[in-house]
Amino acid sequence: MPGDDTQLADLLARWGDDEGARTALVSRVYTELRSMARSLLAEDGGPTLQPTALVNEAFLRLLGPGNHAFEDRRHFMGAAARAMRQVLVDRLRQRMADKRDGGRRPLSLDHALDIAGVDNLELLELDQGLNQLAAHDERAARIVELRYFAGLTLQQTAALLDLHPATVSADWAHARAWLQRHLSAP
Length: 186
Known about the structure:
Layout: H1 2-13, H2 19-41, H3 51-62, H4 73-97, H5 109-113, H6 123-136, H7 138-149, H8 154-161, H9 165-184
């Protein structure tokens, strides 16, 4: 609905300055973000973080400095995916620093990214790889963030980025191949 898009755009624009806009926006997108978090955490295999906690921590990051307004739904969902990614990376870094990891790998990313031949990829390696990929191909890195960290399908990602699904599919294949090379390098 066009009116619905206008109302969402207004809430996104007022996000940083208006608590009422934040509350209304959270109520509109919370279920969707929680569903994304649930799919992302399904790979975890352990009770280290619940979807609600991941979404809540991501919202706290979205309220942080520099996130005063969002241009549109695409901008917001990209920021939400990036915030969820950072929450997971920071938690993993903390667990590793506390030496309570016990050798357990928190996420199996090879299945989610469909990278053949690579077992037990580390979230920190993926984060580093995505940062390097973004330096070469920002759009491909965003597609990985939206596909993996926000749990979007190719079609949903294409709609959100205003791209043709074939373009997203090609960029997704490129990003997977690039990450496979990066993550399997010594």
